[in-house]
Design brief:
Chains A, B: Keywords: DNA-binding, Transcription, Transcription regulation. Chains A, B: This is TetR/AcrR family transcriptional regulator. Chains A, B: Residues 6-66 form the HTH tetR-type domain. The structure is a homodimer. By secondary structure, chain A is mainly alpha-helical. In chain A, 76% of the residues lie in helices and 0% in strands. The first copy, chain A, has nine helices and no strands. The first copy, chain A, has helices at residues 9-23, 30-37, 41-48, 51-76, 79-96, 104-112, 117-143, 153-172, 177-192. In chain A, α6 (104-112) packs across α7 (117-143). The radius of gyration of chain A is 19 Å and the shape is elongated. The first copy, chain A, starts with 8 loop residues before the first helix and ends with a helix. Chains A and B meet through α6, α7, α8 and α9 of A and α6, α7, α8 and α9 of B.
DNA sequence: CCCGTTCTGTCCCGATCGGTCAAGGACGAG
DNA sequence: CTCGTCCTTGACCGATCGGGACAGAACGGG
């Protein structure tokens, strides 16, 4: 018994997300969000509350999608191949991102880790999710003899995660595709040898 | 034959830098900079031009200091110890930074890589400087038999650089001191073994 | 068909944004 | 001491900020 929403809430959040990804939290104004989503300022405000909540929704959606993408990546392969596949995926995404928009997790923590505990926690959760999948794959790899038996799979997983975050960061700092790929293969060599 | 500057230009830039490091470019207003530096708005503008130039000066100073600190780190040690010392240094700094202020290179590229080629170039230069020092140390380590002779020192240097950037990023995303240290030692094991 | 409810667009607000400028003060050269 | 030069201060600018108020449109239950 009321007028229904004309817009897709999820679509609006997604549009807001791309805006935030490009210009950050402080750098994105409400009018930018209005333009990005196509909604009126009133609708935006009515649906989500304030700017902070819109960002939180956008960031949460990004992390949720990242989690799903991680699951998908590790569903397609197992063992060492899965771990290296993840690294290759990150490297490829970084190289493809010629505009240097970059990963939202990095951007959000870089900008807001000082002031928002919520952002830190959400980011931590998503990264630990990756870590878990990596550790699982590496443990399997160890059983199969693909990886030396003396190393702790959990430590190796964290190391690989750090490498992937590093590749992302270096990509945004102007490192070339060749340089990034050389990091990826060096990591593969160090693990697989 | 004129009234001299009452303030130290470098001190003002340094004060502005800490403000930018905390709240980013867009998140730091001119009044914030006035408060941080203690200068009047007019003096700031007169001395540096606009906000963008102040940031550029601050970021440039940060990178220059980082370069100097890198030289100092690699002057104190050589070979594998120097490379691992650098990694330990980054890890320690990240752990000590409980407020999650973080490295300005990461922050600046995260926020401005999309819009400012200058930031990307300055960041790239500073990171390549680290890479060069790492590569040099690792080549020496290889001669001394500390590192396997089959690996390319340049690739290993990039890998280590990526790990260090990853540690920085993970620290800002809430990773604990133990977790970060475990990454550091895993990297050491992988290299030294 | 009608009314209550919710959504939407627009106008408005005080605050603050980045940036400018005129007035006056402080200093050094002569 | 005087004067020219540069610096500092603080008021001020238009624009935009995030947020809110509100009238009216669109819809569903009765």
């Amino acid at each position: 018994m009321a007028r229904p929403r004309k817009f897709e809430e999820e679509a609006a959040v997604a549009a807001a997300r791309t805006a935030f990804r490009r210009t950050g939290y402080a750098g994105t104004s409400l009018s930018d969000l209005v333009e990005a989503t196509g909604l009126g300022k009133g609708s935006l405000y009515n649906a989500f509350g304030d700017k902070e909540e819109i960002f939180e929704r956008a960031f949460d959606g990004y992390c949720a999608e990242a989690d799903a993408a991680t699951d998908e990546t590790f569903r397609r392969a197992a063992g060492l191949a899965a771990a290296l596949g993840y690294l290759s995926q990150v490297t490829g995404d970084t190289i493809a991102d010629r505009e240097h928009v970059g990963c939202m997790i990095n951007k959000a923590t870089a900008e807001l880790a000082v002031s928002s505990e919520a952002v830190v926690e959400r980011a931590s959760k998503t990264l630990h999710h990756v870590e878990d999948r990596l550790a699982c794959s590496l443990a399997r790899a160890q059983e199969d003899g693909e990886v030396g038996a003396d190393a702790d799979p959990r430590d190796l997983a964290r190391l690989l995660l750090a490498v992937s975050r590093g590749i992302e960061a270096l990509g945004k700092a102007g490192y070339s595709a060749e340089e990034l790929r050389s990091i990826e293969s060096a990591a593969a060599r160090v693990l697989g040898g």
